[in-house]
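Lecture notes, unit on protein representations.

Consider one protein chain, 70 amino acids long.
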Amino acid sequence: MTIESEREHSKTFPGLRFVRDWGTDDYDVQRGREQQLYDMYNPPLNRIRPISLKNKSLMKYINAAQRFGE
């Protein structure tokens, strides 16, 4: 998450702090990890899934994140 994102969200949620989970420039891993975290924590303020169930690349992203995290 970028500093700009943290600054933007802190306006609505002043006590919110960000912790970096993984560091990678691999887009597929980033997308897959975002979905994994969404599924793990089920954030109540996120009304939209990071990756649509209709997205043909869903499993490609999830698999890339799983391989990266091993």
